[in-house]
Amino acid sequence: MNDTLFLRFPTVRVLAASNQEAVNGLWKGLGYYGRAARLLSGAQKVVEMYDGHLPEDPAVLEKQIPGIGKYTAGAITSIAYGVCAPVVRLFHLVLLVAVSFLLSLMAILFL
Fold this sequence. Notes:
- By secondary structure, the protein is an all-alpha fold.
- The protein has a single domain, classed as Endonuclease III, domain 1.
- The protein has seven helices and no strands.
- It is extended, with a radius of gyration of 19 Å.
- The chain starts with a helix and ends with a helix.
């Protein structure tokens, strides 16, 4: 991510007090601006609802903070709070194993 963004907004409170124009200005060149909008609204929600601290419960984090999905919520809470949060659903794991098996089989048959 752009280092300038972190220098301009060193804390979630500083980011939450900003505006979309300032965030978009620093987001320029990083792509999809919807992410910048969710970054700002997420920071504002964290400050308003949780006194500037991310929730420790991954389910709450995912449901309450814009732009945070299951994987990100699990990663944040496991790293920041030591919460054991699954980040890969069983279906995706089975799908990954099946695709790996098929690719291996194709390599054996066609090489």
